[in-house]
Every structure is written in structure tokens, then in C-alpha cells.
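Quick one - inputs below.
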Amino acid sequence: MERQARAVVVLSGGLDSATCLAIAIQRGFRVFALTFDYGQRHRREVDSARELARHYGVEEHRIAPLDFLRQIGGSALTDGRLDVPTTGVAPDTIPVTYVPGRNLIFLSIASAYAEVVGAEAIYIGVNALDYSGYPDCRPEFIASFTQTALLATKSGVEGAPFAVLAPLQHLGKREIVQLGSELGVPYELTTSCYQGGDLACGVCDSCRLRLEGFAAAGLADPLPYVLAQSTDR
Amino acid sequence: MERQARAVVVLSGGLDSATCLAIAIQRGFRVFALTFDYGQRHRREVDSARELARHYGVEEHRIAPLDFLRQIGGSALTDGRLDVPTTGVAPDTIPVTYVPGRNLIFLSIASAYAEVVGAEAIYIGVNALDYSGYPDCRPEFIASFTQTALLATKSGVEGAPFAVLAPLQHLGKREIVQLGSELGVPYELTTSCYQGGDLACGVCDSCRLRLEGFAAAGLADPLPYVLAQSTDR
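Output:
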């Protein structure tokens, strides 16, 4: 019997990474999910990642603590003294929610994990919306990282390289929500809000992009929102 | 007054990184030292790093826990079930002490740190001896990493890039020991032994290379060794 291909999926617990996980599963990969606990405000993400991993019955789910990112700060997502913006991001600027080196670090650790479990692929949910603002979500970064990782690892040197796949790379939120819905992604298990409260705030950049995506796709977001609740009353 | 240039120095506490730190200090950099605690057998390294940082009066010394590397194993340095070899390494093979993705992860985290403190340079002590065996010590890896890191970070995008410097890149242990001695590196504070005991074992690959380096340089290694002690009696 042919060995089932293996993939490491970087699983934040948000909408994009959940969709990415569904894609890897649908493509027949045996999944090793990897979640980072880096002191982000929205740590509910980690619980969401756990539930998504359970839902999809992944082979293994590792949660890597990464306290250093919180220690050094430099981002509104990891530094409690900075406010999470709710007014949208100016075009061609890097938002204050940018976390220094985040995807570089995530993919580096994912590469080590891929090497140890013998994975042929690493999936990451970066997408078109991210890369206007976050340099580490751009296609040129993903391509360059892949080259570097293969030079760095035994897998690369010994001719068993892994690919870094970003299947959402050219999709906006509407397309991601549509694709995920077709794949049956349980979006009620995901977390997007940067504020990390019990209910999604509905006004941070992440909530707004998510809500716009569901609205454009003509679908209802199954998550409870603070604003929706106020309106209901 | 001109702003003093800043450098992040990856400081393991071994002979090479201590020499690298001395070089950065000698070149006039304000140093931000970064040590990784990744569950390595030779954790005495971390104490050595602390003492070296104190000796050189660095601006800041951060110790980043990186438990994930121990969790996933895959190396004789992080997996207690694998023995550290003492018989030398066959040419052109990757030793069992290879740690998957290590320098890729170290440099990624160093990049985040460099970005937050506004460093112009990252120093890492990889050298000619390492790169016969460890893919992530080769010059082509360092060059590729630099490109990737600049694509990943705000520093790179906004035109304030940092350089990744490996001043020992083309030096063997003899040249490193000679250079370090000229710079006054307190080698008695360093730790090289993979076994991590109170006395250096003198027979693991790391001890042997170190001892050969001091011998070739015609200098005495100030560290106490198990073997030297036995011989003395």
C-alpha cells in the first residue's frame, strides 16, 4: 500500500487556517497540525485550533509555546499597551497588528516539524488580503522561504524536500468563505477577533474583514458578535 | 552624536558564539544577546551565555525558551534516547547531533528581535567545520536566509534592513581560537561539551574539535576535562 502523504498545517484557529486545514484533508493528507501560543491577545484562537483539530481527526496536534514574541512586543497583538485598531488600515502601510517575524518564525518551526514527521508539505493560510499589509504574507516571501528552508534542512539536502503551500494565496475573504463552506468547514469553531473576548467585537480589522467576507458570499457567519447582540435587543 | 550601531548576537555559550560576541563588541556594536534554551543536553551552555553576557556588559540578554525542539526530538542533542557520538563523523554525512531546523529557527527569532530593537546586524557563529555536516551552517543558507528575512520583515520592506553576519564562516577551530585569544575572549566561561556534565567529557565531537583547535593553536584550553583529570592522577 502506498504511504499516505503527510502535511504539517499551521493552524491558528482562525477562518483562513481552518479553511486551509480542510483543503489539506480534502487532498488526502495525513495532517500534523501546529498551533503557536505566542501571547497573542486572541488566545481563544488556541482553543479554536484544538476544536478544529479534533473535528478533523488530525494525526497529531502540537501547540508550540512561543513566549519570546510576547516578551519582545512590538505589536498591538502581543503588547497590552497598544490598542487594536478598529478604523481600518491605510493602503500600503504595515498595520500596528503586524507581529515582527511572525510567519518567518512559524514556518521555520513548521519546517523542523515537517522534517521530523517526514511531511511532504507545509500548509499555511496566508491570503491576498493579508499581503497588502503584512510583508510576511506575500507570495515572494513564501517562495523565498521555501528555498531557504530546503538549504537549511536535512530533508532538502538529502533529496526529500517539502513544499510550502499557500492555497489561499490569491483569494479574498469572499472566495475563502465560499470555498470553506463548500468543504463544510465548521466556521462556528473558528475565532477571528483580535480582542479575544467571549463575543467577537465586530469592529476590529479582523472581525470586519470576516463579516464582509460572509456578507459578500451571501452566507451567515455562525459566530456570535457583540454588535449583532445589541442590534437584536 | 551618531547613534551607536546595534547588533543581535546569537549566543549559545560555546566557543564560537563567544568569539562572535567579542568580534561584535570589538567592532563597536551595542549588543543585544540572544540565547535559546531548547532542551539541549548541554544546558550548561545557557549559564555560560549568561556569564559571557555579563562579562561583556551587553545592553540586553534575552533567553528564549524553545521547548518545541525538545518536544519533537529528532536529534541526539534533544532526545535523551539517542546517544551522543564519540567516534567522529563520517565525511559528507549529517551527524545525529543535527537539530532539525535549528539555525533557521534561531535566525528567524533573531530577526524578530533585531527588528524590535532596531539592530543593523545579526551575528551568528557558524563556521567552516560545522558546514561539512550541518546544512544550516553553510554560507548558501546564510545568504538565502538574509534575503528571506528581508522579504518577511517591516525592516526589509521599509528600507532599514539588517545584515546577517557570520564572521567565522571560513575559519576552522584553530583560527577561531587564535582570533578569540587575541580578542581576549574568556574561554574559561564557555561550554562546548555535548554531554553537559560538570566536567567536559573530552571525547564527544564538540570536545574533540575544541581540544584539537586549542592544540593546533598552541594554546591551553582553560576548561577542566574528565580525561585530563584522570591523566593527572
